[in-house]
Amino acid sequence: MKALIIDDERLARNELRRLLENFPKIEVIGEAANADEALNLIDELSPDLLFLDIQMPGKNGFQLLEAIEGKVPEVIFTTAYDEYALKAFEFNALDYLMKPVDMQRLAEAIQRVEEEQIHEVERKEGIKLLGEADQVFVKDGEKCWFVKLGKVRLFESMGNYVRLHFDDQKPMILKSLNSLEERLDPKIYFRANRKHIINLAWIDKIEPWFSGGLLVTLKTTEKGTATEKIEISRRQAIKFKDLMSL
């Protein structure tokens, strides 16, 4: 399992790396001293696990997790402050280790990581990816739809909900964008940024955008619904170009 250590204290990073040498299944592939460095490394190295400090200059550990585009790695918080424990588990952290990190507590955390990895493999093996020909049942309030996914041009995150855009309808379902992304065929549906997944078949126009990103214009629907313009972030633009190029 590939791990990234994120902590603004160099001594803390060195000590944690030393302790992790006792766990051969954990490969430390990089270190970051702040959230900006971490975001670049996460995008470049695709770690499976983050050992994440909370209090850091600039973005804190929670803000870092909120800024990650796409699938968030597993997280073990390492911090000198116990008052953030409840909030940490709101972010689905596997564990919360107090500094200085105790070897026994670290071993317990690593055990949770390994168990979670097994569960993740079993869960993915049981999941059927949904493509454009699949039909799904959608209920929002008193209204219901049975819609082919190929008609859904855009999925938009709205907090704990996702808004589906098809025809002139925009119902919401109680699901996170990350969990939905795991169910969708990546050859058809692309994570454009933190808030949007687009149906590649609905792209009408692509143009360069700020900071190395792209701006995608989606096709107008048969019912004449106004076209949506979605920004593909700089990080995701690199993946998009790789995916769509010869």
Helix content: 25-40%
Mean pLDDT: 90
Structural class: alpha/beta
Assembly context of the chains: single chain
Low-confidence spans: pLDDT under 50, at least 5 residues? none
Query: Topology as H/E string?
Result: EHEHEHEHEHEEEEEHEEEEEH
CATH fold node name of the largest domain: Rossmann fold
Biggest β-sheet, characterized?
5 strands, parallel
The termini sit apart by: 31 Å
Widest β-sheet, arrangement of strands: 2-1-3-4-5
In total, how many beta strands? 15
Q: How many domains?
A: 2
**What fraction strand?**
25-35%
Overall spatial form: elongated
Tell me which CATH architecture of the largest domain applies here: 3-Layer(aba) Sandwich
CATH superfamily of the largest domain: Response regulator
Count of helix runs: 7
Mind explaining what this structure looks like?
- InterPro entries: CheY-like_superfamily (IPR011006), LytR-like (IPR046947), LytTR_DNA-bd_dom (IPR007492), Sig_transdc_resp-reg_receiver (IPR001789).
- Residues 2-114 form the Response regulatory domain.
- It comes from Emticicia aquatilis.
- The longest helix has 23 residues, at 103-125.
- The protein is an alpha/beta fold and 246 residues long.
- The protein is 31% helix and 29% strand.
- The two termini are 31 Å apart.
- It has two domains: 2-125, 3-Layer(aba) Sandwich (Rossmann fold), CATH 3.40.50; 135-244, LytTr DNA-binding domain (OB fold (Dihydrolipoamide Acetyltransferase, E2P)).
- It has helices at 10-20, 35-45, 61-67, 85-90, 103-125, 177-183, 234-244; strands at residues 2-6, 27-32, 49-52, 74-79, 95-98, 135-140, 143-148, 154-158, 161-165, 172-174, 189-191, 196-199, 203-208, 214-218, 229-232.
- A five-stranded parallel β-sheet has the order 2-1-3-4-5, with helices on both faces.
